[in-house]
Amino acid sequence: MDSFWSAYQEYIRSYLPQWRYDPESGEVESAVLLAAAEMIEESRTRLARLPQKHELAFLRGWELKPLDADPMHAYVSLTAPEGGFVGAGKELYMSGDGTRLWHTAEDTQAEPARLTDQFLTGGGKVIPLCVPTLEQPTRLFDLQLEGLPGPEVRFSHPDALSSQHGCQVELTMPQASPRLLALLCGDSVSWSLVCACGDMLSLSAPERDGENLRFSLPAALDGLALHASLPAASLPAEAIGSVLIRTQRRELPPDLAWDGDGPCTGAQWLPFGEAPETWRTCCLSCPDALSLLGAQITVRFALSIREREDLLPGMEQQPEYRPVMRRLPPPPPPVRDVWADQVLWEYWNGRLWLPIPGAEAYTGSFTTREDGAALVETQFRWPEDAAPCEEGGQSSLWLRWRVGRAENSGWLPRRCHAPEITNLRFSALLENSPVSVSVRGQTEESFHPLENPRLPLFRPITPEGICWWLGFDRPPSGALMRLYLSLLNRVPGGQLSAWEIGSDGRERPLTLEDGTEGLSHSGVMTLNDIQGQRSVCFGLHRWWLCLRDDTGRLSQGRQFPRLAELACGAVRLQTDSGERCQKDETLSPLRGGTLRAVTLTKGFGGSAVEDQTALLRRARAHQHHWGRCVSAADVEELICTQLRDVLRTRCVREDDTLCVAALMRDVFCHAAAFALRKDQIRRLLEDTSVLPALGLSITVREPVFYPVSAMVWLRPAEGVPVETVRHRVCDALDRFLHPAAGHFQGQGWRIGSLPSEMEARNYLQACLPDLSIGKLLLTAAAPDGRELDRAQVEDPYALPLPGAHTVHLMREEGSLCTR
Question: Which of 39, 50, 289, 405 has the most CB atoms at less than 10 Å from its CB?
Answer without folding.
Answer: 289
